[in-house]
Each structure stands twice: as structure tokens, then as C-alpha cells.
Write a structure and sequence with these properties.
399 residues; alpha+beta; 16 strands; 31% helix
Length: 399
């Protein structure tokens, strides 16, 4: 491991974090971590304990792997996290196909290098998000890497249509799926009073931007994180919920001219199409090599996706019946989940909250767990699910 060189920073940050399993799931597959100048949130996926392991492995790898001093080091730390998830899955058959989203923020040297004003680097892969709140309001820094987000960017769907689209959970990027994923990165100038929110989709799927902005700007960072998570659970809690709030408490003022808009993401990967060739190279050989490399990546990706698509279990709706399925709830690209069993409990017999949760799908670790939950549905057919979830197990932390 490369030793980090001590640096005096021109900014000072305080943080607060909170996480909750939600009202439906038995296991919290989110993870939140922080280290020297780096802050990370991950949302794992995978049957049994895979998602929980993937997110924990990834956050630990980023915290350990970020050595500074620049944005490239944070991107490199995410690459190390991807490799760590792949290696852990390869070593344990029960973890095969696991993956995780990840977003992170780190303090890095600004354009002037060490001794000048610091900058903040942001990275993202998947659909965990990074927001910034300042005097101008709430803005989203990161881009979601999902099928519906791609359709919105292409003009094929509106944001409102995307929010209720049946395939909104299909990710197009994640750690642990391929050897060389594309990682988005940004470099931003910080300002006194900025608040950044790193969160899993369990938060923003329950709270809209207006409510997130209201909560994010009210109170100390550690209290804000706890309130964001608690309210997301009360509003539905259909997924694990995690929030990490990072506030700039010492730093430069916003310049009188205002601050620039959030720049477009820098998509980065190790390999890719050849953009230029040295003088004297044979263009036909270069083309053949490029095609071969791309074909190898495509084949490897298809193999990994096909394996990953068959991992995991969930409870969902099968033409009005509560049923158990094998695979990912909305499939992965062209790989669809498979029906396992069901047909003896009608959706119409469930109370409204349970029916809504089944329609959204309930991930489970195995068939035995699915059967246990369905039996629980039967025993409470006449009893409503608690309207106020127990928030006593909201885990919070601050620095």
C-alpha cells in the first residue's frame, strides 16, 4: 500500500451518516464508510449474502485504495474495489454474481497542485447518487447508470415516466460485473456552506428533490443524515436506506460572479477504442486488434451477465398471485427471471402496504426465506402492516 503524504488542506469537512434496513428486507445490503479525505456509499446486489458482502468489500477497498492527491487516484481506488469484488466472488461460489453500486467523494489537490485551493473529486457507478446543496439550491452531481436513465437522456422517457417504469431497477453499470467498468468522475471547486449528500436509491425513491433539499439544509450534518433516512423509511422503506452528509465548514466563499454549473461526467475506463495511432503503425493491424479487444470484452460481459442474472431470489406478482422467482427482479438486459412457485395466495387478499411491496418485488436470500415471508403474509391477512416502522435501529455516525 502506498503511504499517504500529509497535506494541509484549505478546506475542512464534517460528516454525518445513517443507514436502515427498511421495512421489507431482512438484510441491509448498503454500506457507508469514510477514511482520510474520502467518503463512500455502496448499495449491494446479489442473492443470499452477496449484496451485503459486495458493498462492504467495495467501500473498504476505496477507503484503503485512495492515496491521493488527485481525482485519478479516486478513480483508481474504485478500480481496486471492482477487482476486490470480482476476486471475492470468484473465491466463494455462494457469492457468484454479486455486485454493487458505489459513489464517493474525496478531497484532492486543486488545479494549482499542493499548496493551492483544494478541490472535491466525485465518482459514481450504478444508481447511488451524489447531490450538492448550496445557496442556489439542490443539484444532482452524478448520473444514474440504469436502463430508464439512459432512455431519459435519449429523450425516450420523461423523468416522471422513468419514476414508475417497470424496468427502472435494471442497472447498466455496477462493480463486480465486468473487469473494466466505465467509471464517471467529476472535479468540483468547494465553497463554504456546501453540503453534499451521498445516498442509495432507497432514499431518493421515497423522497423527492424538494423534500431532500428541505431536510438536507436543516440542522447539523449527523442529525440531517438520521432524519433523511428515518423519513424515507416512514414514507415506504421498500429498500435499504443510506445517507452520508458531507459539509464544508471551512473553505473559500462563493465568488461574486457565482459558481460554474456542474460539468459533464468524465467516463473513464482502462481499455477502449483506439483514438489515434503512432506514425508508421499498420492501420489494418490496429483495427484487427481493436475489434479483437472489443469482442473479448463483449463475450466476457455476456458470460458474466448470464451468470449474474441467475443469482438471487425475490417475491413478486405473477398475474395476481404471490409468487417466488429466481434471478434479478427486472432481469439484466435480455436475461429474464424465472418462475419457481406460487399460485396459492392471491394478491387481492394482502393489505395495501404488503401488496405494494410485492408489486415492487421483495428480494430474499433463498427459497426457504421466501416461503417463510409468504407464510407471514398469510398469518397477517387481516392485520395491517405497522404504519409506523420501528426506527430504533437506524445506525448513525458523525465526524
Amino acid at each position: 500500500m502506498v503511504a499517504r503524504r500529509p497535506r494541509r488542506r484549505s478546506i475542512r469537512l464534517v460528516i454525518g451518516s445513517a443507514t436502515h434496513v427498511g421495512r421489507i428486507r431482512d438484510v441491509n445490503q448498503d454500506d457507508v464508510a469514510s477514511g482520510d479525505d474520502v467518503y463512500v456509499v455502496a448499495d449491494g446486489m446479489g442473492g443470499h449474502r452477496g449484496g451485503e458482502v459486495a458493498s462492504t468489500v467495495a467501500t473498504a477497498a476505496v477507503v484503503q485504495g485512495f492515496t491521493g492527491p488527485d481525482r485519478a487516484s479516486l478513480v483508481h481506488a474504485v478500480r481496486l474495489a471492482n477487482r476486490a469484488v470480482l476476486e471475492r466472488a470468484a473465491a466463494d461460489p455462494e457469492l457468484s454474481g454479486m455486485g454493487t453500486t458505489l459513489c464517493a467523494l474525496a478531497v484532492v489537490d486543486g488545479p494549482g497542485g499542493q499548496g493551492g485551493p483544494d478541490a472535491l473529486a466525485v465518482v459514481n457507478i450504478g444508481d447511488s447518487r451524489v447531490y450538492r446543496l448550496d445557496a442556489g439550491g439542490l443539484v444532482r452531481v452524478s448520473d444514474d447508470h440504469s436502463l430508464v436513465a439512459d432512455l431519459v437522456r435519449a429523450g425516450e422517457l420523461t423523468p416522471d415516466e422513468a419514476a414508475v417504469h417497470p424496468q427502472r431497477n435494471i442497472l447498466t453499470r455496477a462493480l463486480g460485473i465486468e473487469a473494466d467498468p466505465t467509471i464517471d468522475s467529476w472535479e468540483l471547486p468547494p465553497a463554504l456552506g456546501d453540503r453534499f449528500l451521498l445516498c442509495s436509491d432507497g432514499l431518493f425513491n421515497e423522497l423527492d428533490d424538494v423534500r431532500i433539499s428541505e431536510l438536507l439544509g436543516d440542522g447539523p450534518a449527523h442529525e440531517v443524515a438520521g432524519r433523511l433516512v428515518a423519513e424515507a423509511v416512514v414514507e415506504g422503506g421498500h429498500d435499504n436506506v443510506t445517507a452520508l452528509v458531507v459539509e464544508v465548514v471551512d473553505g473559500p466563499e462563493v465568488p461574486p460572479s457565482g459558481r460554474p454549473a456542474i460539468p459533464a461526467a468524465r467516463p473513464e475506463r482502462i481499455t477502449g477504442p483506439v483514438l489515434s495511432r503512432p506514425k508508421g503503425d499498420d492501420p489494418r493491424a490496429t483495427l484487427r486488434a481493436t475489434i479483437g479487444s472489443v469482442a473479448a470484452v463483449v463475450i466476457a460481459t455476456i458470460l458474466v451477465l448470464s451468470l449474474s442474472a441467475g443469482q438471487g431470489w425475490f417475491i413478486g406478482d405473477d398475474d395476481g398471485d404471490v409468487a417466488v422467482f429466481r434471478g434479478r427482479p427486472s432481469g439484466i438486459l435480455w436475461f429474464d427471471p424465472t418462475f419457481v412457485e406460487g399460485g396459492d395466495l392471491r394478491m387481492s387478499r394482502l393489505d395495501d402496504s404488503t401488496r405494494a411491496a410485492v408489486l415492487e418485488t421483495i428480494p430474499v436470500g433463498n427459497l426457504k426465506e421466501a416461503r417463510r415471508l409468504i407464510e407471514g403474509f398469510r398469518s397477517h391477512l387481516s392485520d395491517p402492516i405497522l404504519s409506523n416502522p420501528d426506527l430504533s435501529n437506524v445506525n448513525t455516525g458523525d465526524q
